[in-house]
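During the no-cost extension, the postdoctoral fellow (Dr. R.K.) reprocessed legacy sequence entries with the updated structure-token encoder. One reprocessed record is reproduced below for audit purposes.
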Amino acid sequence: MAAGLGEWRRFAGPRFRAFHAVGFSQGAIGALAGGAVTTPLMLALGAPAAMVLIVAILPGIGSLTQLLMPGVLRRTDGNLRGVTLLISLIGDTRGFWFAAIVALAATGLLTQPEALAAVVVASVVAALIGGLSGSNVLAWYHAVLPESERRFVSPRTSAVGAIAGAALLTPTAFILHDSHAGVAPFIVPFLVAGLASIVGLVGLARLPHPGRVTVPDAGRVRAERPAGLDRFVKISTVGALGFGIGPPLSIYAIVVLGLSPGFTVALSALGTLASLIASTVVSSTLERRSAAQVLRGAHAIRAVAMTLGLLSFPGNPVAALLLVGAAVLGASGDAAAGLASSERIFRLSSGPAAIAHQARYVAATSTASAGAQLTASGILAFGAGIGYPVYAILFMSSAAVRTITAIRFGAPVRDHPAPVRHPVASPALGG
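Re-encoded structure tokens follow.
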């Protein structure tokens, strides 16, 4: 305990101030200009649940832009710093975009359908650009920090973001609690997200310079593909199907259970806190355990989360409480899977080629997740008037796929913490 507090005191020192700013900014933007707030906004603007689910696919599709990063780095002579600052300047300021749209809608200068269309367009642009932002930042960390220092800084920077997100979502839940207040209250969280992006840009500018970071050509990357990578990608792709087919809890809470937007934001806040705790536990666990073992547990936890969602049916007096449990377990599983997947790639790869391996992983899992989400949105659109039974099908399907994935990760795949090196790779998604 004392050792853990000592590490946090070290991280709180002035040497890591730039990382503090970046972590805070990413957490605030993700919480206040992400699905936790845009989902109830789109529903308030009259969007059907199926449409909102399709928009929720955008971040996954946007992450496919990571496939472009090896080529971009080659064409810019490895200028990771300049590329990342430009991407962040455009994509991370999306809170200001959303605030402007809502303000125009609240004053009547935009009709609800026009505002909804503008939100969707802004979400598309943000997803395409944002697919590179966070991954490039961690690639920057890997370029400037030794391996031991990277394992010290990255989890704590993420923890700062999770703390910031949870702290900001809590008052946002109260602001959006009144479902009859219209869309004007949504301006507040979006403006805060926009201001947080400025803090992040300042932090990025103050990070150590990563130098020139280039990626080997595609032929060399394929020839030197690490053993075990293909199997890892295939199993993770199956897991991504389970992620995509599961209905977003915020949509389910509003559309089926009739709960308020404020409740869904509070749900996101609790999930953020749960992910913080899970990240703290898993980051230390991975130092001595196989990443595949952690992934097995993460998918099992996600299967339980979907089962709790299935049990939170209308008329159940504890439906809201079960939904909270689903959110907490789901967020914990997501956090654990994200860290373990990232670590698995780090252990399989070395050097800048890891950027290309990561891009392949993201392409496979994102495509699978997006396809499953499109299927889920079609099911919701077809059964729009049926209600709970349609969502029950999605909950059960997601739980089944998660269970299968957990079993497959239980096969004898062993990996151990890699020796100290200096990899350059972007973060893995949960899958």
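The two ends are 32 Å apart (CA to CA). Confidence is low (pLDDT under 50) at residues 417-431. The remaining legacy entries will be reprocessed before the final report is submitted.
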